[in-house]
């Protein structure tokens, strides 16, 4: 698991915004991942995505890494934000957009 944790740490550390999801942004493979992609696209942020369906070690490892049982999972500037429900709540309250601003994540205005 250590190698997997290091791989995940590398992905999270090298990208301002990263979404671990089922499928890809063009072809999400579950409704929760689709919702997360739509929120990020609406916010206009550039993000990296990781398809957990393509790598079982990452799929299981990300749950242990964040101590969060579900996918998708959003990380911003190395910090775990949450899954689809938390993203939705934050987006609807304007908190997600504010977090991107506060952390200096560029958005398309």
Instruction: Report the sheet-strand fraction.
Output: 15-25%
- Distance N terminus to C terminus? 40 Å
Give the SSE order as H and E letters. HEHEHEEHH
Based on CA inertia axes, which overall geometry fits? Answer: globular
Largest sheet composition: 4 strands, mixed
Could you estimate the helical fraction of the residues in percent?
Answer: 40-55%
Task: Please describe what this structure looks like.
The protein has 109 residues and is α+β, with helices and mostly antiparallel strands. The chain is built from five helices and four strands; from the N terminus they run αβαβαββαα. It has a four-stranded mixed beta sheet with strand order 2-1-3-4, sandwiched between helices.
Task: Briefly say what this structure is.
This protein has 109 residues and is α+β, with helices and mostly antiparallel strands.
Question: What layout of secondary structure does this protein have?
Answer:
Layout: H1 2-14, E1 17-21, H2 31-43, E2 48-51, H3 56-66, E3 73-76, E4 79-82, H4 84-93, H5 95-102
Parallel strand pairs: 1-2
Antiparallel strand pairs: 1-3, 3-4
Descriptive keywords:
alpha+beta, 2Fe-2S, 109 residues, metal-binding, four-stranded mixed β-sheet, redox-active center
